[in-house]
What does this fold into?
Amino acid sequence: MTRVKADKSELGIHFDVGHDSIGWCVTRTSLGHAQFLAIPGSGVVLFPADDCLANSRRAFRRQRRHIRATRQRIARMKSMISALGVMTEAELSNNLTAAPWKLAAAALSCGKLLSWPELWCVLRWYAHNRGYDGNILASAKNRQESDADDIKKNAASHDMMARFGTSTMAETMCRFLGVDPQGDKVSSREYFKGNKVSFDRSVVVNEVKRIWKHTKANCQD
It folds into this structure.
């Protein structure tokens, strides 16, 4: 807000900045008092849907929210595992991850029992790759703008799972990369993200639940 003195009154200029619009309002109050006099003017500036600056602002804002939400998600999981007393603070702060998607696939397809540090690596990976939920929390307008691309990515994930005969994100990645979940190979020349796929949130959630229950029920470390 900006204030400007004019005669015996004071003008206040107010802004309400949104992701695709800026609202403004001018108010007039008497000098030396909080008495409200009038609103000389108000309005709103709308950014067209195809405006490059508006699109950039929306994209950056969405990215910042995604990063913040991911960090908060990992912090909550860290607190939960710390409360269980199964890992030290040093282990929880260790961000070195060795092919978490391979560990997840091994647990899902072969019943591999993950250690708590391995499970922590897997959970952090899933925190960054939660899958597509139809943007149910987004506004109607933002959902319309992002749906076309997201739906296309989601359909691509269904096609990929059908091609490989898989039902989970982790196992599908292993099949595409040519990595055996029980083997020693942990890398590939293939670029999975280049497929631009986004798995159903329900598929990913089910994977995490299965891995978590199996580890918690059997791991005594």
Notes: Residues 52-218 form one domain. The mean pLDDT is 83.
